[in-house]
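From the thread on structure requests for the teaching lab: each student submitted one protein with a one-line request. Submission from student K.M.:

"Model DNA polymerase subunit gamma-1 from Strigamia maritima, tokens only."
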Amino acid sequence: MLRSRYKLFSYNLTIECIRRCSKTCAAASTKMKPEKSKNEETPAPRMNSVGVQMLSESLYSQIFGQPKLENQIQHRDRVNQSIDHLKQHELWGKPTDLLPDVKFKIPKLRGRNLDEHFRAIASEQTEQYRQLILKLSANNLPRLPKKWNFQPGWTKYSSTGQMEIVNFPEDEALVFDVEVCVTEGQLPTLATAASHNAWYSWCSPKLTENQLTHSEKTSSDDLIPLETECGQVAPPDGKWKKRIVVGHNVSYDRAKVKEQYYLKESNTRFLDTMSLHIAVSGMTTFQRSLKAATKTNSKRKDIQEAKSKLSGPEVEEWLEITSGNGLIDVHQLYCGGERLDKDARNTFVKGSMNDIRDNFQPLMTYCSKDVIATHAVLRAVLPLFYERFPHPVTLAGMLEMSVAYLPVNENWQKYLKNAQTSYDQLQREVKLTLMHLADEACQLSHEEKYKKDSWLYDLDWTVKKLRIKKNSKIEPNTLPEWYRKLCSKKEENWPPGKPVISTQMRIAPKLLRLTWNGFPLYYDDTHGWGYLVPKNSTECSESEFGDDDECGDDDDGNFLLLFILLYIFNFYNFLKVQIFFRENAANIEKLWAQLERGIGDPVELSELFLNAVRNVPKREKWQKPLRFPAIEPDIEVEINGCKFHRLPHKDGPKNRVGNPLAKDFLNKIENGTLKAKAGAKAERILRIGKMTSYWKNAQKRICSQLVVWLKKNELTKLTTQNSDYNEENSYGAILPQLVTAGTLTRRAVEPTWLTASNAYPDRVGSELKSMVQAPPGYRFVGADVDSQEIWIAATLGDSNFAGFHGCTASGWMVLQGRKSDGTDVHSRTAKTVGISRDHAKVMNYGRIYGAGQPFAKQLLQQFNHKLSLAEAENKARKMFAATKGKKGYLLNETGIQLYNKWKGSERSSEIDNPCLTSGEIQKMLRKTNRFLRLRDVADRSVWVGGTESAMFNQLEEIAHSREPRTPILGCRISRSLEPGVVGDNFMTSRINWVVQSSAVDYLHLMLVSMRWLCSLYGIDARFSISIHDEVRYLVKEEDRYRASLALQITNLLTRAMFAEKLGMHDLPQSVAFFSAIDVDTVLRKEVTMDCKTPSNPLGLTKGYGIASGEALNIYQILDKTNGNLEINNCINKT
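Reply posted by the TA:
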């Protein structure tokens, strides 16, 4: 009784302290609030039981209604449990920031709770589209026409066999497929479409008229009309009807549709059967490899090892319910029968327009059979999709994402030209420098100096007598065989010409004299690129350096000595301090001076080295041992006196590095790990490699973007009547070919825009995103969802632990942690492991995606190649113990009885709940029943003791459930990963699915909410794109602040929906609103980024005349809009 009273007193005291603290902090945090009169008292912000600031009373009541009554004793116990947990992780009592309360009236919700609200607005948005889809899927397609009409434009074939020329298909629901003559460009060549009562065919005038007129700029005349007559920019009745177009990878077909490029958005939406399949039955990358290996009976070692680790159901079970994503495989999976014949596709890929004309009838039939197959897939997969994704928000979100839109102008062409020019200039510089280095290397033939070169000694230095040009700078008969192979060979005794060298060639690292931490790089045919260190480094360092014969064979003495010199140079300060005050200091200074100038004559350096260190004492007298860092065991190669270490590969030590100048090693160049010892020109090549890496990898994708340039009448009056409009300028659009559910987590996939990086000052072409520019009269309005997936995972943990926000260490750090105090989640991990915060961020995301200790160990070695395998394993183990925790076990009834008996017999037990580690269970059994074992008293394992234990317990509980579903919208995992067919296999992918698929729920909720608010209040806005955690809308300029407020309300309702569905009927203030809404004329990460790059050296302001945008927090937006979405109440302050 006394103890319970003490606990109650302690609980009440804690709550009172939080309340008093909140009042004090509220009084001190008035900087962001408007000034109040002296007589007006500032109300204390709402705080929950662990000091997390919650929504204002005003917003809380509008969203969640009246507070729900709960058992005070149970609540008190949960609060005490949370406080103990936070104390354990040294977070309780840490200072936090308080925000000013946000108070304004939000639009009235449609339902008794948020789930009903979102169901109502999503059903309203999709109702007509669902009816059209149902009508299309419920009916058979008409019979194919016996003959296709070879006429430009659209032809309709009725079910009675009648043929009719039409402007565009009249039906509101179509299955659609487009074919392109690839050798002639990206424009459509022919297309077929079908509804429940008619077939349609379309032919390009370029096909039928036999005239290949090439225009520099693509216009809407080159595309397929689906809603308007030729030459018209609006539908016949002036209203855009709601239409649905179905296709397999339909974003490819959408990019060929005329009306989709108009600035004014139509009401046509696109449904992708490939996305439906991926969501229902998609595979992970690993499963795809396993399936391919099973089909080909592959004996690959890594595949066989992976298969041997699988347990539970036979692999064949999940193989039968999944397939690849192509139409052939998907149709075979759902419809069976004979596999589709796609041989005719080769004519479109490799053939000419004449080939297509000559085979018009069979090719049109081939195209129509794709339509039939797509329709069959739709009928089979649609019921499965509705069953597994029952919430209307899912379909609504996918339909909204199907109409992504990126406006561009004449600056796009300027960007392409500047980027390519910059790239070409830098590549010429690289080739010229490598040619000079090759010419210089040829001089080593004299007196066989190459034998003492640590990089070039193993090349083929065989010299043949040649006929030499008179004015050649290279002496006759000195061209080695390796040099000859670099030159174009015209005849047997060819005269020497300019070598053709690039950084892709194996000789390039040798000519650059690349070193890894000071050690020379070496290529081995078996192990790929690595680096060499002295084989007897330990013996050498423990002997007196003055003994000439201690370090290997006499023949390799100078060669090995160079390695030691390079190593000393790398650790310059350490060794110099050790020997600086020796009697032979003069010789030491000469040695350092020579080393700083660069590697000179090996014999001279050897003498300098021996004179400098002859009197250095033995190793045991030194304070620190001389160590050669390595990340893996030595590999024996055929080099006397040397050890070979493979360069670290991003995919693990079993993989070999093919090119140390590839993009995966750019960070090693930046931090000085990878250096060039061939002088300033060689270092310049390394810098150029970094500068050109982005454009080199993305150039083909960027330049192949289909840009359609709009005529003046295809723009809106808002643009053409704007003061910034210039008729001499060009305005157009790009349609990102988004696969709306491109992975089985339902993340969208697109190869260019969804992987676009931000602008970097040393990356050619990296200003790509900023070349998407709003036309006059419009602005981009968007935001970056702050720590979206970290918050989702932490919130799952909070709901599982004590049921309120911030009750776990991970939840508290996400909500209240401060970078300045090191209490945010990334800073805490960085401190625990001893890595940078940026690296900790990568580790944290990898962990919540389900990656285990092996992945963490691999990442740590990538971050710091000097870490040994044991050191990396130790750091990874330490991090997982601090975050994920240790394995614990939930007790069954027998275990609970023994636990109570044990607790009663121990007065000072530290265990407060029946979730014990294996050691604690053994201790309990020794005291209570020695005949029982762990399996007799435990139900299942859980994670305990870590900051994220509750989070992972919840993630794993969902992943292990019979039908894993996202906790918010109830979306079900792909059939190929369900426990019934895979058992306990693929757990990393399943945990990853819980987090990332929930993040897709988040995006879909946002898209639906924004569509509702824009429609309700007449805000002229259309979805532009979502990149990573960013979402962007193209908005009428005068609506930009109302759209900003709508986006803030959207985030508020989306986060509240998550909280409500997880049983927490409240929301922290810190995550309720975006930290900033960006209002800008271009796409960029920050509104003040000038996006200076080597291809845009003047930046956006000077180079393109583009000013900075606005970044507005919720308080500034409320000030500009008066907290009201109505247009008449919006101040629109500039």
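TA comment: The chain has 42 helices and 23 strands. The CA atoms of residues 127 and 392 lie 9 Å apart.
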